[in-house]
Design goal:
226 residues, Sig_transdc_resp-reg_C-effctor, transcription regulation, alpha/beta, two-component regulatory system
Length: 226
């Protein structure tokens, strides 16, 4: 899952990015509203976490612009504004949730998980199932044919992206752009290594491999869509 954090408090941003990445999310950080808008114009995100009082273009105006373009990505406001009228204004502008500063990271992570479960790409019950592979989005656990599969945080991100786009052929660049943070130098061979590891770990000795290589293009999870 790829998240955008728009926060101008550098210390808070650094701590938030670190905690989110520890949970296995790919996170891009924007320090002002204009930078955040540029990210949103060029990258597809699963969740937007933004401060209200951003320099330049404030978070409220940014979110209104995003919603006016028809973008439905879930959005969570982080702000010191704690009046009921402020919350109503934020929600009316298109926010899906509202967290008042200072906050506990445990609560932030819980709200992030809840919004991602409610997001337009989330499956019923917070679980992705493709064939005999099952990914529990809440527990961040994987099974194949009922057997647990131990994956690293990055392997989970790659698998989740493949499963959310099951049947589609995804290029190595698409996978890298969605799973790794903006600005990271990710060669195609890095994606190949992660896919190789996923195949090896998902191999339970029977059944067709769930990840298929499309020569010269990329990878496909599950059967091709008709």
């Amino acid at each position: 899952m790829r998240l955008l954090l728009a926060e101008d408090d550098q210390a808070l941003a650094d701590a938030t990015v670190r905690r989110l990445r520890e949970e296995g999310y790919a996170v891009d950080h924007a320090a002002d509203g204009e930078e955040a808008e540029l990210f949103l114009q060029t990258t597809a995100y699963d969740l937007i976490v933004l401060d209200w009082m951003l320099p330049g273009l404030d978070g409220l105006s940014l979110l209104r612009r995003v919603r006016a373009r028809g973008v439905t990505t879930p959005a969570l406001f982080l702000t010191a504004r704690d009046q009921v009228t402020d919350r109503v204004t934020g929600l009316d502008a298109g926010a899906d949730d509202y967290l008042v500063k200072p906050f506990a990271f445990a609560e932030l992570l819980a709200r992030v998980r809840a919004l991602l479960r409610r997001g337009s790409f989330s499956s019923q019950g917070g679980t992705l199932r493709v064939g005999d592979v099952e990914l529990d989005l809440g527990k961040r656990s994987v099974t194949r044919k009922g057997r647990p599969v131990e994956l690293t945080a990055r392997e989970l991100q790659v698998l989740e992206y493949l499963m959310r786009n099951a049947g589609q052929v995804l290029t190595r660049s698409q996978i890298a752009d969605h799973v790794w943070e903006f600005g990271q130098d990710v060669g195609s061979n890095v994606v190949d290594v992660y896919v190789y590891n996923l195949r090896r770990k998902l191999d339970v000795g029977s059944g067709a491999p769930p990840i298929r290589t499309v020569r010269g293009v990329g990878y496909q999870f599950g059967e091709e869509r008709g």
